[in-house]
């Protein structure tokens, strides 16, 4: 009879804990999830050079993208999203699409699909797990004549979602969702960018990342930007006034405002933006990018977030800077599929906004607000785009639901939950299931009824 070690009851208990944890991690994943990482192609690096015309309305140059296949499945193609074509789609004979890709190298380009917002590039050979590849292409960008995140206001040009970026493939396949103007369709993995923007020296060019300018040709400058682990790259161009300050927490805040923007609003926006980036750094984890740009104009509608840069309509009362700064964590650092689960960034950013201002949220939840049983906080943009008059619920009811969760768990527990959750998903991708599991793990209360009541499905 073979001899066995004399295990103590404590040893057996520890072994059982390990085994239970392992089974819990595997439960419900399925074979595909076990072999398929959360998302691919990962570790993208973008190297971009663009040259502007006299007023920043047109940019042209070249983009090079290097990436890795992190999946067990061979990567036979990649998709490039031309989100700048979202509003105009494939254009007309007189007004072509604002973003064009030409001279593709490193693969074979197919026709544009999804209303000219998706370009398939077939790779020369299947890319095995862990292998890297590079594709490059010419890029031409014409800023549309509308006041929008990709548009213009007076002499200012906004280039949000103008630069082509890789689509994501995960266990659900390629994410090739349509563009929506109410909300966002964007889903991208944390990436590295090095971008050189050649422009007339009279233009100031705020951009994602740490930026500096060097002399270009006669009357021109080159703004160079380097950004690590960001989900997108945006910039603006115009005759901005500028100011730079460093917060007590060490974040460099660069402010840009167009002529005619309210001086009182600029002051308030600068103050609140600096305070917000430090406060959220304490609450969710230190802001990792070192620099953030606040771009202010008088007529821009609301605000729009990009990594390290926010666009803000600014009046005497300021603007939406606190909400947009909160997005640096909820969408930027803690990523999510903004088309599939917009509440994971908008509701969380608005909850942070409400906490910053100390808004009263007790008893804010009301079933009266819900139009039908099919309306849920966790609906995708496919639903909200078809029910635009209900989309405000992602902000109002969503932040209220998180405030109610804070009261259910306790303020200290909620604070620990969010900080730990951000840490665990830093530069990663969050899902509704992830958050529900994390919240349940910090309390002995069964949250099933809470999720049902607050339509978090």
Automatic annotation (TrEMBL):
<dbReference type="InterPro" id="IPR014782">
    <property type="entry name" value="Peptidase_M1_dom"/>
</dbReference>
<keyword id="KW-0645">Protease</keyword>
<dbReference type="InterPro" id="IPR034015">
    <property type="entry name" value="M1_LTA4H"/>
</dbReference>
<protein>
    <submittedName>
        <fullName>M1 family metallopeptidase</fullName>
        <ecNumber>3.4.11.-</ecNumber>
    </submittedName>
</protein>
<feature type="domain" description="Peptidase M1 membrane alanine aminopeptidase">
    <location>
        <begin position="286"/>
        <end position="453"/>
    </location>
</feature>
<keyword id="KW-0031">Aminopeptidase</keyword>
<feature type="signal peptide">
    <location>
        <begin position="1"/>
        <end position="27"/>
    </location>
</feature>
<keyword id="KW-0732">Signal</keyword>
<dbReference type="Pfam" id="PF01433">
    <property type="entry name" value="Peptidase_M1"/>
</dbReference>
<keyword id="KW-0378">Hydrolase</keyword>
<dbReference type="InterPro" id="IPR027268">
    <property type="entry name" value="Peptidase_M4/M1_CTD_sf"/>
</dbReference>
<dbReference type="GO" id="GO:0004177">
    <property type="term" value="F:aminopeptidase activity"/>
</dbReference>
């Amino acid at each position: 009879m073979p001899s066995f070690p004399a295990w103590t009851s404590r040893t057996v208990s520890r072994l059982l804990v390990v085994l239970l944890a392992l089974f819990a991690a595997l439960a419900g994943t399925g074979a595909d999830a076990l072999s398929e990482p959360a998302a691919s192609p990962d570790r993208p690096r973008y190297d971009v050079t663009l040259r502007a015309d006299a007023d920043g309305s047109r940019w042209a140059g070249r983009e090079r993208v290097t990436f890795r296949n992190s999946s067990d499945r061979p990567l036979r193609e990649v998709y490039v999203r031309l989100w700048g074509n979202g509003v105009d789609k494939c254009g007309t004979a007189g007004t072509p699409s604002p973003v064009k890709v030409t001279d593709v190298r490193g693969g074979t380009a197919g026709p544009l699909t999804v209303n000219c917002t998706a370009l398939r590039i077939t790779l020369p050979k299947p890319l095995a797990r862990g292998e890297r590849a590079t594709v490059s292409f010419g890029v031409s960008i014409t800023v549309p004549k509308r006041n929008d995140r990709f548009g213009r206001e007076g002499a200012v040009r906004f280039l949000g979602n103008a630069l082509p970026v890789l689509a994501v493939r995960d266990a659900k396949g390629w994410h090739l969702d349509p563009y929506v103007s109410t909300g966002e369709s964007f889903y991208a993995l944390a990436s590295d960018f090095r971008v050189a923007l050649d422009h007339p020296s009279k233009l100031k060019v705020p951009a994602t990342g740490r930026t500096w300018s060097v002399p270009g040709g006669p009357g021109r400058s080159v703004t160079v930007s380097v950004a690590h682990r960001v989900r997108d790259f945006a910039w603006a161009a115009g005759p901005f006034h500028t100011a730079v300050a460093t917060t007590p927490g060490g974040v460099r805040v660069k402010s840009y405002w167009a002529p005619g923007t309210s001086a009182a609003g600029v002051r308030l926006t600068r103050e609140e933006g600096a305070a917000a980036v430090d406060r959220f750094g304490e609450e969710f984890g230190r802001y990792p990018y070192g620099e953030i740009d606040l771009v202010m104009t008088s007529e821009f509608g609301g605000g729009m977030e990009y990594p390290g840069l926010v666009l803000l309509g600014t009046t005497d009362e300021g603007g939406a800077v606190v909400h947009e700064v909160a997005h640096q964590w909820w969408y930027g650092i803690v990523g999510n599929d903004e088309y599939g689960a917009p509440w994971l960034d908008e509701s969380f950013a608005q909850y942070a906004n409400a906490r910053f201002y100390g808004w009263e949220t007790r008893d804010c939840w009301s079933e009266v607000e819900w139009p039908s049983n099919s309306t849920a906080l966790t609906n995708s943009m496919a639903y909200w785009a078809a029910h635009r008059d209900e989309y405000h619920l992602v902000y109002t009811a969503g932040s209220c639901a998180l405030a109610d969760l804070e009261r259910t768990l306790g303020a200290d527990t909620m604070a620990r939950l969010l900080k730990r959750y951000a840490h665990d998903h830093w530069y990663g991708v969050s899902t509704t299931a992830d958050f529900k599991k994390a919240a349940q793990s910090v309390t002995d209360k069964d949250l099933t009824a809470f999720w049902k009541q607050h339509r978090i499905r």
